[in-house]
Amino acid sequence: MDSVLITMKSRQMTPEDTEETELLTVGTCQWEDDTLRLSYEDTDATGFAGATTTIQIDPDGLVMILRMGTANSNLTLELGKKHFCLYSTPFGDMTVGVLAKEIAFAPDANSGTLHMVYTIDINAAFMSENTIDLRWEAHQEESTAGDCPMA
Q1: 80 three-state secondary structure
Q2: C-alpha to C-alpha distance for 136 and 8, rounded to whole angstroms
Q3: Res 116 pLDDT > 70
Q4: What's the pLDDT band for 150 if we cut at 50, 70, 90?
Q5: Which one has a higher pLDDT value, 92 or 53?
Q6: Contacts of 49 (CB under 8 A, 6+ apart)
Q7: Of the candidates 10, 17, 15, which has an alpha carbon nearest to the alpha carbon of residue 42?
Q8: Residues in a beta bridge with 87
Q9: CB-side exposure of 82: number of CA atoms within 13 Å?
Q10: Element (H or E) spanning 143, and its range?
Q11: Span 55-67, mean pLDDT?
C-alpha cells in the first residue's frame, strides 16, 4: 500500500438545506486485480472519528464506500441500478436506497480523480442528493516515484 494525499469535496442537498464539506487527509492506495482501494482514517471533521473509510472502485465502474469502526456503513454505487445498503447511526441501523446518477473515474500513474453524484432515499422517500469529488496523489513526504502505480 502506498501513501497518498486525498482531497475530497462533498455536497449533500436535502429539501431543506445544502451542506458542503472538504476533507484533506493522508491515506493509502492499493491496486489489486484492476480494482483500486483508497482508505483513510475518519476524524471529527468527517463526523465519524474512530472509523476507517475505504472507497473501492472496480474496472466496471462499481463503487463501494465502506466505513468500519465507531460507525459502519456499506454504500454501493452503480450506474443504472438502485442498491439497498446498510447505514448505521448512533440511533440504530437502517437500510437506504442508493441510486448513482454519475460516476466518472480517471486514474493516472500516481494520482487520479473520482466524481460521483447519487441520491439516497429511505422507504422510497427522497432524503438527499450527494456529490463527491475526490482526488488522490502520491504523498511526497513519505514516498518516492512509483506510488500507487496502476495495475
Answers
A1: coil
A2: 9
A3: yes
A4: low
A5: 53
A6: 42, 43, 70
A7: 10
A8: 73, 94
A9: 10
A10: none
A11: 92
| Length of the chain in terms of residues written | 151
Cell numbers representing residue 9 in the block: 469535496
3-state secondary structure of 50: coil
CB atoms within 10 A of CB 22: 11
How far is the CA of 118 from the CAs of 45, 49, 79, 91, in angstroms?
A: 22, 24, 9, 24
Please indicate whether residue 4 or residue 94 has the higher confidence score (pLDDT): 4
Query: What residue has cell string 493516472?
Result: 108
Of 36-45, 106-115, 130-139, the one with minimum mean pLDDT is 36-45
- The three cell numbers of residue 113 are 480523480
Q: Are 56 and 39 in contact (CB under 8 A)?
A: no
